[in-house]
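User: Could you check the structure of this?
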Amino acid sequence: MNGRPLTAIACGWMAGSGLAAGYPGWRFWLFALGLSLICAAIALIGRHFWRSLVLIWLAFSLAGGYWLYNETGNKTRIGLPVDGQAVRLEGTIVSAVEIDGDRADFTLKASRLSLLSAGSSPQVSQDIPGGEKVAVQLRLAAQKELPTAASWRRGLQVTLDGTLEAPQSARNFGAFDYRRYLHLQRIHWLVKAPGASSIKVVQSTRGVAAVMGYIDALRDRLGERIERLFPEWQAGYMKGLLIGLQNDLDPDKYAEFTQLGLTHILAISGSHVAINVALLFGLLRLCRVTRETAITAALAFVPAYMLITGFSPSVIRSGLMTMLGLYLLRRGLLKDSLNVLAAAAMLMLVWDPYFLLNVSFQLSFAVTAGLILFVPLLSPYFRWLPRKMGSAVAITLAAQLVSFPLTILYFNQFSLLSVLANLLLVPVIGTLALPLGTGALLLSFLSTRLGLWAAFPVRWLNTVTFEATSWLSARSGFMTYWQSPSLLWVAAFYVGYYLVLYWGKRRERLAAEALTPQWQDDDTVPLRPVAEPTSFPLRERVWARRGDFLRLTIATGLVLLLISGYTPAYNKGSGYIEFIDVGQGDCALITTPSGKHLLVDGGGTVSFRKAKDAWRERREPFEVGAKTVVPLLKKRGVHRLDAVILTHGDQDHIGGAQAVLDSFPVEALLINGSLAESKTMTTLMETALTRRIPVYSASRGMNLQPDKGTRVEVLYPLTETEGTSRIPFVKEQNHQSIVFRLDLNGASFLFTGDMDEAAEREMLEIEKVSASAPTTPADSIDVMKVAHHGSKTSTSEAWLAYWQPETALISVGAANTYGHPHPTVVDRLNGQNIRIYRTDKQGEVQMRVRRGRIEVRSKLQQTP
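Assistant: Sure, the predicted structure tokens are below.
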């Protein structure tokens, strides 16, 4: 760091900003005081480090203060009580308008707000000095409104009538926090508006927003031209590759790229900028333009390219680095790319400190720094390969190893085929598809036919690419799921990774130095001589042995670190029940003391959309299994499910199970002995057959014992259908719901699905208990999952009297239209002094069982 002061400053700045983000207020300054004392002690011990330490300490303190200053100002300026109120906003559209199905989303910078009465007339108004950004979600009323929405662009001054709401925070532990996401964009309110008639365009404005609006229109025109050159299934991919538009890429293809760690190809980054700058520079030099003029032209080209490709953090980073590099190259001052990277980071973080928490920013800078630092250390290990191939392997491996901790931190998955996929496909895409596609796009401006001819080889390359990604992603057993590691784990991985390679490089250098004196200048020196430690001088021998020992120790530590990171986020010896908030539906994850996982239902998104409203369908509709359940299971390090229990066939219980079966190995699938007449159920059964998942019909008397501390006893349905010639189709599934008792680590739970009161009476009769004769205390349970989301059709007085639960859990959607839970059921529970937890009020509810004692925590609040 002594030779790289700018790098030291950037590291200190990022550390200070990160600590202030994680520990705001007085806690940051307490940490800063402790760090100051540590820095002072290090400076006294190693005096030659003091300059770097002072720079790092100053950068750290200034960055923390700068972050806290920005946080202090990042508050709403709206002083009126507006949450849930009808309002009229006057302001300017400051983001691109994204239309997906029947919804248009954009950001409005509001300069004036008025509360609306029932007659839509303004009552109280407030001017907002400097304006405030709000996120707008507008639901189009009819298909004919699509052209109107498409005409909206940045820079338009509009008035908007809608309902102002506070953004929703995460409702499950570790889930995506939409409120935090908007906060980092300095947005504190969400406006929901019905129909295009809610917006009235006043006039076009001038300024940055208007300029960006014209650039958006240019990008759209470029996208339309790309659609003419490439077939529909390739057009979305080429839009992402050439101009950074990713919205039109087929969701299934994007998922394949994600699984193989190839999404960086679609994010405009350093390689895209470098290739296009090299093409421009080479073309100018071919036209005999001087080197200085060519550099100047390339320098002017980069900002335009950044704007056209979307101005994302990765684009800004690569663009800034390229411009700084070209400027320094022209001045003859380009010496250290790491300092150039640090300068780009500092410029971005001073402009907006919230860039630090952007995933694209982190991955872009981490991978770039990793290539600068680690490729020289890795290259010697691949000398046995041809030079270009060895260099490509070193670059790919360095990029994958550097991105690995951040990938599992944010996405919780890593494919073992990722290195192979990147090694095979990235060179083809980067050196062939990207430049040829760019050339075809440019030629199309001269002649569409000429552009189509030029695009033909790119189409063939794209076909090969997609076939390869489909084949690789279909290979089962190579996808690994990781719990989200701590930042300390991430830092330990990077430090250990660097030290192992550093000591290996040092040993090789010592070996080379030990052999050098044995040869005269005019002698022939053997190619890549290998020296044994015994031939080193004494001091070098000591260093070599220390290095070997340190490498072995650190490598062992890295292995242990990976093992700990791959282990699920559950303490062995404890049992867990996690009632995941899936809205209006049921989903619970049971984890036994030995680490077995059982999933009860998977939630499901219910749609009542008619065929004539197909235009409302989004490119990737929200599906609770894919968007909520699967990501949470991955985040908690679940690798496989020992059983999936589908209590019955209603959509809000089985809809999300399809994504679960597609993502995880499942050992067994339990159903209630009947099938629902739905496409979802048919697809589930077909998936089970294809994946050879055993399907069992649950009925009274069936017992499962995953480990010695866990027992599942099925209490209902009463009759079994397994072994019959056909499984019957039953329309009314609630009555057939699987009901089971779970004894876990000394505590008891009752899962009831959507059973109705008739099923309750049947069970009570089988138990030979009348409705008026309560059970003995020996039959009571600790926790009951209330049936059918608290509907009045179940949870009768006799049922509660028999089981005598201490705690009740109601899985129900917030603000659902069914009126769940019914007040009568809530009154019954309160009348028996049963403690109630509700997912609509408290989000996810987690219960940890240790030696019969249940510890409860909820996401939104600790007590009901």
